[in-house]
TrEMBL record:
It comes from Sphingobium yanoikuyae. This is TraR/DksA C4-type zinc finger protein. PROSITE patterns: ZF_DKSA_2. It comes from the Bacteria. SUPFAM superfamilies: Glucocorticoid receptor-like (DNA-binding domain). Keywords: Metal-binding, Plasmid, Zinc, Zinc-finger. Pfam families: zf-dskA_traR. Residues 31-62 form the Zinc finger DksA/TraR C4-type domain.
């Protein structure tokens, strides 16, 4: 049973990551990639290098 729960959790994680990547690809297509979805400021290149699918700058991400 525990193995099944772990497999389900891993599948959910993969699906969530896929959703983040798909959203990032849509932002690239629309020209919004690299700009914070919350405050509209440019997302730092270092943050994008680390977390390419992020939609928010570090300050907004910390605010929750």
């Amino acid at each position: 049973m525990q193995v099944q729960a772990m497999a389900l959790a891993a599948q959910r994680h993969r699906q969530a990551e896929r959703s983040r990547i798909d959203a990032a690809l849509m932002r690239i297509d629309s020209g919004d990639y690299g700009w914070c979805a919350r405050c509209g400021e440019e997302i730092e290149a270092r943050r994008l290098d680390h977390t390419a699918a992020t939609a928010m700058c570090l300050a907004c991400a910390k605010e929750g």
